[in-house]
Design goal:
homodimer; 412 residues; alpha/beta; Molybdenum Cofactor Biosythetic Enzyme, Chain A; Alpha-Beta Plaits; Maf protein; 3 domains; 15 helices; 42% helix; globular
């Protein structure tokens, strides 16, 4: 079942917002066995939207539209679909009740919002408990078109309650060969070294695909397997995975949508261990990564953001003399930060990060991108120096990835 | 000058990575006056890429491609462009020198990487000091096609050094009417209330456009003005902006790519004031937002991530009796956290956040999404309760936005 995504909105087109919706939808429908053929971002422009629907219906069985259903004048999706299907707008009494119910929670049914109850007569309305616009489902003329609001949690609610179950039931009926993806996650090795380690994929892939996808925490290995039955796909997937594990296993920390912090946390929780963090250049990002997953309070106890030198000395017992002699970005300061936070929070492990994130603050000896990371454990302490690049944001992200990678090596 | 973006890669298509590159490129070329007509994400598939180039060259003057230039077998872009322009691959001695130079920094010129020096004979190579693949520029048959690596900092380096200057020089020569965008940023008001406050945009827009773009920190108002000269555009922009400021000025904190934390920091720095943060459910995200901008050490001194109740009592002087009586998510605990961190770091302001981010931990009295935020200042303290939604990630992001919004109201 071929699916194409159409994201509507000048704000995406001109880059004012990042198209996270498309990634979420693509991931969600791929997971149930749909084949995503294209994402397309178009303007708040009726003609362009019409042309795009016309073009993509040729290669696709399902078009998933997001955006342009809001209450303001620049929203065109509903109008275009009414025209496309030569439909008319009628007032939905059910939706008017929903709008009134929402108003009883403290919002008023303004005239602007009441217009949301006017919906195309041949569309099925998809409930949206947290918003004022319903999803619109057209299942006509051999194509399924679903229009959803661009607000991420409204779109997700409609996808999960309506669209995923619908597509899933169609897939079960069809029984076509589908492609499924499985990802193995690595840390601590560069893309080309990993490729050399694994060798020519053509020698062990038979009809499957393998892709190398680098990001800040490491390189992901994505296996795509195609087959008629789940059994066929599982067998091939396990065969390829075992080759990869044999050749690069020591760098593989997890699979699919696992996160490095989640995997580290799982290992810590299993052993009844805990961690705390002392952050300088990352300013809270490592703590944020640790607490990203629900349930992290079991193994993550807290941390200190010591952005100033004063606070490093006062809160973490870093010696002023070390800062004076070696600078705040130094092995000794990272070591002391890790030990200081470990003691303060009474955790099994303490992590200290201090670095020059940039763009300013670099010197000949310590250029922008120099980061010291230390992990203090119950018995031993590991402290490493990294050289990242010139980009402040990337240096901060890579520092978080490196710190978690160091802890993973210890606790796996 | 019409520009279309083509992002190549199954990893984007299936939603494994978010297409941040497209947003960055779109924003960058829009800022110099280009008109972005479409973003398209396609598979690592030669035929689909070929078809997409064929289609988009009709509506576009420039095609910007990212991805598919890497050293592994799933990279198809170079091959497709060679076929599209009926070109041949030749070895570039300059690029081989670059690969050797990179190897002297500790990397080896593996056979895999050496293949990156084979480039199309009619393409101009665009230098990429931080990667192994050069950008490829074709300026033939009435169309400009640029292929860049998908690695974000390599793409950005090529855009900034080569593509932006080229497009800018073409635009100056053309002298066509261009559209420029200007954004006013609001916080503390919902989209439909803001729309009502501003009234029907058709009454004061003459040829300009206005869009409402909500995100976690607030609603952005994007004005699009079209004109032949910069003077015309500036005049119209200032006219529309002054109407918006008159009607909704008290919610407007900044413009364009300013951030709420950056604006707050600017106000604090101007007054010689400072802030520190005590975070529970946000786990470091507020500190990360504060330190996102370079130079934040002037006004941001640090913080404490007190994820456990123990650490709230020990580090911030929260009373155990308050936690026992009111729970960790309560007005009194948020107040104490703010006061505790303010005192600990000796800053002008202290912010405390405690909430139920979800998905677990909600109760009838304190459902998931309940967050208390307190801002302690030199004289007074403001503490507010928020009800966000069911999504953990969004609750954390909105908490950060709300906390910064509260501080902004005080320091603006």
């Amino acid at each position: 079942m071929n699916v194409a995504l159409i994201s509507i909105g000048d704000e995406i087109l001109i880059g004012q917002i990042v198209n996270r919706n498309a990634a979420w939808i693509a991931e969600t429908v791929t997971a149930i066995g749909c084949h995503v053929v294209e994402h397309c971002v178009v303007a708040d422009d009726s003609q362009q939207l019409m042309n795009t629907i016309d073009r993509l219906r040729i290669t696709s069985d399902v078009l998933l539209l997001t955006g342009g259903l809001g209450p303001t004048h620049d929203d065109v999706t509903k109008t275009v679909l009414v025209e496309y299907f030569q439909d008319v707008l009628v007032e939905s009494s059910d939706w008017m009740k929903h709008l009134t119910w929402m108003s009883q929670r403290g919002r008023e049914v303004t005239e602007r919002n009441a217009a949301q109850a006017l919906t195309p007569s041949t569309a099925t309305l998809l409930s949206n408990p947290i918003g004022t616009a319903p999803g619109l489902l057209f299942n006509r003329d051999g194509i399924i078109i679903v229009a959803m609001p661009g607000v991420p949690n409204e779109m997700k609610s409609i996808m999960e309650s309506h669209v995923v179950p619908l597509l899933h039931s169609k897939l079960v009926v069809q029984g076509n060969a589908t492609t499924q993806y499985y990802t193995m996650l690595t840390t601590g090795i560069a893309e080309s070294n990993l490729a050399d380690l694994i060798g020519d994929p053509m020698m062990f892939l038979s009809g499957s695909t393998l892709a190398f996808l680098p990001n800040y925490t490491g390189v992901r290995l994505r296996i795509g397997v195609t087959g008629l039955t789940q059994e066929q796909r599982d067998k091939e997937r396990m065969r390829v995975a075992s080759v990869l594990r044999e050749r690069a296993g020591r760098f593989i920390y997890g699979h699919d949508d696992q996160t490095l912090s989640g995997v580290v946390g799982h290992h810590l929780a299993e052993r009844g261990q805990s961690v705390s963090v002392a952050e300088s250049c990352t300013g809270g990002l490592l703590g944020a990564a640790c607490t990203d997953a629900p349930g992290s309070s079991v193994w993550f106890h807290g941390g200190v953001i010591t952005y100033s030198n004063d606070s490093k000395v006062r809160e973490l017992g870093v010696h002023q003399s070390d800062i004076d002699r070696c600078g705040a970005v130094s092995e000794e300061v990272a070591r002391r930060m890790a030990l200081g936070v470990q003691e303060k929070f009474g955790t099994t492990y303490g992590i200290g990060i201090t670095g020059v994130a940039g763009p300013d603050g670099g010197t000949v000896d310590k250029p922008v991108g120099t980061v010291w990371i230390s992990v203090a454990g119950p018995a031993e302490q590991t402290t490493l120096k990294y050289h990242f690049g010139a980009d402040r944001r990337i240096n901060r992200e890579r520092s978080v990835g490196a710190a978690l990678g160091m802890l993973w090596k210890i606790v796996r």
